[in-house]
């Protein structure tokens, strides 16, 4: 059967970029979101309602050949009935694992993928026990629903325990040993139902306050790239994955330590729109619609910079040669991801110079 109608749960910027990638392929996306003004609703039809509303989810499934996600935190309970109505890709198991940092780390460990030493905890006493066992510094995080550094507290000494507990204390936490990383990198790949896999080059990611600021790609390190591909492929195969899957890593003493995975297209893969033969958005649609996966070959050296909280001066940015501009159509709010730009150049040096120019306009400090 030809799969051309894609239902997407959540209508944020990821959904919007999926919808835009779908049109040239003859794939039409329809969304479910609480807000009729959500970014994807500006470019495709939308059903409005709660993302876990059974009736609206069933209505979305009814008008879709395949169902996928912009928002991956939908509960397994809300998802299960939809599997009888349509294809759900990526599979429910992948979403469930990614929603719980402990389950995610257990899967990585089972697949012999290195992770930070960690402990699950539900009380302040257990936090004290975890600090005693694992040492300081460490990061206290919520097991579920944390994103962009929200629900996290870095503990450097014991006097901060009360403050950390007051900030995010409660049941369902994880304490992780702080990773003294030299870099953060991520890999995006896609797997088809038939088991075909493709992988994008690694990207090096810079965060501020837990939010991605900018990514540089390809990050040329053949050894790390080989490991990242191997790890991502293990996870994909273990979950019988279909679609795009992203893994984020810390580079510690020249080796990868897995931080987390995202069962969807990812902010650190936005550079692939201009920077690769086939974007992550197109390859996600190709994978879930049973189409051959496209080439992930990089076309040059890119920098992707997020617009956070405030849109920069469009005219001045567009004057930078080789820069592509993406406005998600969102209301500004402090720290909110409102858009991004990607610079594509044939040489690393040219890319770095253009990046420094762009960062001045976006009011980021230049790369250290
Ligand atoms: P996460 O929500 O787990 O992706 O964390 C957001 C950011 O916080 C990461 O990209 C890192 O910059 C930082 N971070 C999270 N966990 C750790 C850790 N165990 N050690 C050092 N930095 C961390």
Description:
With 368 residues, this protein is α+β, with helices and mostly antiparallel strands. The protein has 3 domains: 5-88, Rossmann fold (3-Layer(aba) Sandwich); 117-177, ATP-grasp fold, A domain (Dna Ligase, domain 1, 2-Layer Sandwich), CATH 3.30.1490; 183-359, ATP-grasp fold, B domain (D-amino Acid Aminotransferase, Chain A, domain 1, 2-Layer Sandwich). The protein is built from 12 helices and 18 strands. The strands form 3 sheets. Strands 10, 11, 12, 13, 14, 15, 16, 17 and 18 form a 9-stranded antiparallel beta sheet that branches. The protein has a 5-stranded parallel beta sheet with strand order 3-2-1-4-5, with helices on both faces. Helix 1 crosses helix 10 (280-288). The model has no long low-confidence stretch (mean pLDDT 96). Residues 116, 139, 146, 149, 176, 178-179, 184, 207, 210, 248, 259-260 line the site of adenosine monophosphate.
